[in-house]
Amino acid sequence: MLKRLPFDETLRSTVGIPRQSELLDSSPRSRVWRVRLADRSQVIVKQITDDGDAGADADTRFAREVAGLRLAGRATGPAVAPAVLATEPSARVMVLEHLDDLGKVADWMPGYAESLARLHALTGPADAGALPSWSGPTAADAESFLTLARTLDVPVPSAVSDELTALLERLDPTPHHALLHGDPCPGNDLRTTGGVRFVDFERASLGNGLVELAFFRIGFPTCWCAMSVTAAPLAEVENIYRTTWRGLTGRDVPGDLADACAGWLIQGDALVERAHRGTVDQLARVPTEDFEWGYISARERLVHRLGVVADLTRNNDLLHAVGRLSSTLAVRLLERWPELRPLPAHDTRPWY
Fold first, then answer.
1. Per-residue confidence at 52, pLDDT binned at 50, 70, 90?
2. How far, in Å, are 109, 112, 321, 346, 351 from residue 240 at the CA level?
3. Among 11, 21, 34, 23, which Cα is nearest to 92's?
4. Does residue 27 register a pLDDT over 70?
5. Residue 54: its pLDDT value, please?
6. What pLDDT, on the 0 to 100 scale, is given for residue 56?
7. Other beta carbons within 10 Å of 238
8. Is 183 helix (H, G, I), strand (E, B) or coil?
9. What is the CB neighbour count within 10 angstroms for residue 249?
């Protein structure tokens, strides 16, 4: 298919006349151009594709991204996302503010954490229905996790099943209405003179902000470039997030971070890229194959997540048995496959 700039007369009359365009790298789910207009200003043009398997839900993804960006546009003070300048729904095209990314910085996480909290705090109960609710782990995920342990001959404490059932109830997004990005990974966070702004809102939803704050601990579970954050840097960014949220909402972040991390742990789909989610039981593959996503293997991601949950739940009455199982399962994985590597440190993140 020709990748011609989809800029019709409606967009020309609204935004301006395009004089030069450059097709940028993007996922198979979209096409993105940097466009210079006749007045010499620049914009970003993004078209959600309907090519092949990636196009099965193209209309939904377009509507979801536009809705997420418009909600993000409520931010006062520093923006947290590019502004939506115009849309052409029939072609699934949006014209967005062009952002000048400052590129690599030595300490990228504090600004990221602050902008993430500001993004999450933009919505509330009055916005119910503006976006889908966050889609978390299911009973099938919990059972798959238990099956993995049994397959690897790890004893499952009797209390684990009940703890996981209660976990799924606590992770119900219904009472929560934070604006979640859906994929706040390196490459979707741009550093500008006004702070970090997020792009690519195709998976935006409403839920509990802790499920994205958990990215720092659990290793960025929706990202090809999984990373480990520990010790003082981890404490700093979590404090920045919580302080920012409290300052904007007047209350503490609801819920328990241990729940959010345990939720990511039991989701097998968080071991693979988006195109492969919902296709097979990914945890069931772990005992027989160590499949890679980016430069990190599924077993390496899993060992990291198991260790995080084990550490977080040592004194947690609601997830104590899950924590003990996680600790034992991590040991078993490392016994069977001692070549597994720890996740790279956060200061090795890729830059685009």
1. low
2. 10, 10, 31, 17, 23
3. 11
4. yes
5. 47
6. 63
7. 18
8. coil
9. 16
